[in-house]
Design goal:
This protein is mainly beta. The protein folds into two domains: about 110 residues, no CATH class; about 120 residues, no CATH class. The chain has one helix and 24 strands. The strands form two sheets. Strands 1, 3, 4, 7, 9, 11, 12, 14, 16, 18, 20 and 24 form a twelve-stranded mixed β-sheet that branches. It has a twelve-stranded mixed β-sheet with strand order 5-6-2-8-10-13-15-17-23-19-22-21, with no helix packed on it. The longest helix has 23 residues. The radius of gyration is 20 Å and the shape is globular. About 35% of the residues are buried.
């Protein structure tokens, strides 16, 4: 399955490189020795992370901004590779995509005002902050700290290896686990749906669900042990919980404001 995923990811990357190169017309390629950490501060750009075919980090930056306006930044030390975008105009016209190929256990930290983020088939701790971008992560093992202001978050077949959280202000958040989580997991949406799918893996720990009373909905395949309300301005938040085998860990929180909260076994 992983071999097929890697092959599909590699083919997809080649297609993306060709299509974006033809569309944008400009490309920068760089290769670096493996680092512990990669940080990308992209003002407008998007990022795609895939598995490296060797022990090096490979950067493909594809863009359509004018060269006199767009100034990509590349800097490194022994442990960290820092990437970034700078503009010499307040209203640049164009797009940029950073395709980053990483070896195992290279940490990724991505920030962007409007850019999207995706990761496929890697083993990496991932931290993402984007204002309006969408986030998609597929078959990744690691710790996750993922947030977007208005975008959707779609997470499929992940292995959670540390305390992780997924948060969207207005977009829906969907998380599917490749195996049960032994670590705290938080899934939140302000106005969208928040869904957690175990795909038949065992439920473990203390599960907490939340939604604004009469504004959001909560669906669970397991009967709740406790139900209570807490004040939220002029409204109330409805909280429901249950434990599996009387265990209080890990703590699994699925919260929405006005959307649907749903747990799937």
């Amino acid at each position: 399955m992983l071999k097929n995923s890697f092959l599909i990811s590699t083919i997809s990357c080649c297609i993306i490189l060709c299509s974006f190169s033809q569309l944008y017309g400009k490309e920068i390629k760089k290769t670096y020795a493996n680092k512990e950490h990669i940080e990308l501060k992209a003002i407008l750009g998007s990022c795609k992370v895939i598995k490296s075919e060797d022990d090096n980090i490979h950067i493909n930056l594809i863009y359509s901004f004018k060269d006199e306006e767009f100034h990509p930044d590349f800097s490194e030390n022994d442990e960290k590779l820092s990437l970034g975008e700078k503009f010499s105009t307040k209203s640049p016209t164009g797009e940029s995509l950073w395709i980053i190929s990483i070896p195992v256990n290279t940490k990724i930290n991505f920030k962007s005002g409007t850019g999207n983020f995706s990761a496929d088939g890697v083993e990496s701790d991932i931290k993402v902050e984007t204002g309006t971008g969408q986030i998609t992560i597929n078959e990744v093992s690691g710790n996750f700290d993922v947030s977007t202001g208005t975008g959707m978050i779609e997470i499929k077949d992940i292995v959670v290896e540390g305390k992780s959280k997924f948060n969207s202000g207005t977009g829906s958040v969907s998380v599917t686990l490749a195996r049960s989580s032994d670590h705290d997991l938080s899934i939140n949406s302000g106005t969208g749906n928040a869904t957690l799918d175990y795909q038949g893996n065992p439920l473990i720990g203390l599960f907490k669900f939340g939604a604004i009373q009469n504004r959001g909905r909560i669906i669970s395949p397991v009967k709740f042990e406790n139900e209570y309300k807490i004040p939220n301005g002029n409204l109330y938040n409805e909280i429901k919980t249950f434990r599996i085998d009387s265990k209080d860990e890990p703590r699994i929180n699925i919260i929405t404001g006005t959307g649907l909260v749903k747990l799937i076994k």
